Amino acid sequence: MNAIKFHILFQFPLFLIAMVFYSCSTTSDTVTPGPAAYPTINLTVGSSYTYTIDSLHAGGGSTRLGNNTRSTILANGTYFDSTDVFMTQVIERDGGGQTVSNDTTFTKYNDATGKGYSYGFSQLFNPALIPKWDLLADFSIALNTTWVIDNINVILTIPQGNVNMTGPLTGQVAEETTIQTTGSPSEKIYCYRIELNATLSGTIVISSVTYTLNTALTMDYYIGYSSSQHPGNPSGVVRLTNRTFTITTNPNIGTFPFPGRDRILETYSIVD
Questions:
Q1: Which of 185, 220, 226, 265 could form a disulfide with 238 if both were Cys (CB 3.0 to 4.6 A apart)?
Q2: What is the tens place of the pLDDT at every residue in 71-97?
Q3: Helix, strand, or coil here: 11?
Q4: Residue 123 phi/psi, 5° resolution?
């Protein structure tokens, strides 16, 4: 389908980076999340997280896929001129156990400042950019306050051809909430929902007529935190949703709906 290329260029890389955003804090003090404090997001090398994957249909509804993703924390150290960074391996397998992808990411979070970063995130969309530490979470500002991550550049395929889409990618901490794991028995997880939003536009010329394409993309990722109020609550990304979206055109040559994906924590193993 036309969505496949776009998913490869946008949704899959976004999943890779955001899913492995974890704490790099060395403090052992528990901080209760709230307007006057930042979340404490503790993790340990060797901990692992497994996620089920649902396909979200453009017309509504969803289907549970046979694929799953496993994220394992491999190491904590100094990478790319930054200390206290976690290196994480992310493997997706199909229903037969065959590896679909195998990647390594580098992320950091400091609960003293309430800010979390991922290395090389923007470069996934703009290969010409020099990789840097991109801000993916900021608990130091009020809920629903937006910050700009970078300008992104992706290629979108529609029946009339390929379109280069550009625009700002922004983030905001949207709310404190809970999710349910997909394992049995299901478990309530306390977390924050963070939105990544991209407003993109591009043009395509068909029979000497220039058409403008527009779309708005949203990904929600949910970060679990440590708290004395919820002992045993796992830290790290516990859910990641790429919402469905639609591309519009002006002058109108049609609208183009695209599916989404929802990865939800199924099981986890925390190393003390």
A1: 265
A2: 999 999 999 999 999 999 999 999 999
A3: helix
A4: -65, -20
CA–CA dist 7, 186 (Å, integer): 29
Strands 256-258 and 209-224, sheet pairing: unpaired
Q: Which of 92, 90, 172, 84 has the alpha carbon at shortest distance from 133?
A: 84
Nearest one of 219, 218, 215 to 165, comparing CA atoms:
215
Residue type, 158: I
Residues 6+ apart with CB under 8 A from 77: 83, 85, 87
User: CB–CB of 39/139 below 8 Å?
Assistant: yes
Domain hosting 227: range is 3-266
Q: What is the pLDDT of residue 37?
A: 75
CB 21 within 8 A of CB 116: yes
Residue 227: pLDDT above 60? yes
pTM: predicted TM-score of the whole model, two decimal places: 0.86
Does the residue 116 lie in any domain? yes
Whether 129 has a pLDDT exceeding 90, the answer reads no
